[in-house]
Amino acid sequence: MQRISEEQRRIRIGRRHLLASEARAQSPVAVADALVALHATDAATVFLSVCARLSDPGVAAVEGCLYEDLSLVRMLSMRNTLFVVSDELAPRVEAANARAVAAKERRTLLKHLKEDGNGLDEHWLDEAERSALAFLDRSGPASGSELAAGVAALRTKITLFPGKKQEAVQGVATRVIRVLAAEGKIRRDRPRGSWTSSQFRWAPARPRPVEETARAQAELALRWLRAYGPATEADLKWWTGWGTRDVRTALAKVEAEEVRLDGGAGAWVAPGDAGPESAPDPWAALLPALDPSAMGWADRGFHLPPEHRAALFDRSGNIGPTVWWDGGIVGGWAQRGDGEPVWRLLTDVGREASTAIEAEASRLSAWVGEARVTPRFRTPLERELTA
């Protein structure tokens, strides 16, 4: 059985994740496809992840894909988390993950409506959704508050968890909008504010082809292996949010090859992908919180020293902005109030690396311009650097 070393795994990140300067992409769609999916819980992360990998980074190119030609799509999918994927891949992600997530969202909302005890049911929800979609057809993109103002049903309030300690009265607008978005009936349009804002407007979504779940899961697993392999069954299970049976079925369907990692653990690669790769020139990167290169595996020990975790993660397990050198995480960075990117190295990487990191910081400043980025999930090191 072929063994793939930790060094080889770090070499693969440089090229396959488009971080080595020689591997940088020409378009945001190429970046999304190379990484399979971009974390989008924090709106700024999408732009920062993409532009770190573009030969000519800029906000306009990413906005054009998200809001003009719609070649990038935001979807509630893996692990019930918001991601951005290419429009071409979106039907497979919908079948592999998003459809089940949407069904769960609908069940949860209907449960809350029933518990409220005021006669709100599936028929009421269907009518509310039809009214919301009709409003968007008439008005064009609208914020959540504008939708609620224009659709009387969305101004309805319900009592959540009645009779329990966490009982609360809330409006249904946000929950109805979330279900419509999860089902791919509406999409997030340009935000109210800059590219760093998550206050999106909503617009009708284009229908997508309906694909078969098992086939879609197999294709998604194969794409993920090409980007993140070698990786363990536990890594794929964590990344997708699938159960063990679905993971094993997908790996078998694509005829994944088993390999050994340093330490003897078994892992998987795409068919024919077990051979060694030559190293690219040494590279540096400043990647945002929740970047796919930091979030692609359940076990990140091959590129993240365990002693760095306390500084770089929040209490919920979200990784903050990271500094990379040649395939490994060596520190963290932040943006100060005056716009200056600052960083702290947690590993002594030498003069060549420090010079390359400074160059990446300058490249980042050039395209970010006047924008200010504060991660949604703040980590100890990021807070220290901005204090």
TrEMBL record:
InterPro entries: AlkZ-like. It holds the Pfam family AlkZ-like. GO terms for molecular function: DNA binding. Keywords: DNA-binding. The keyword DNA-binding applies. This is Winged helix DNA-binding domain-containing protein. It comes from Streptomyces castrisilvae.
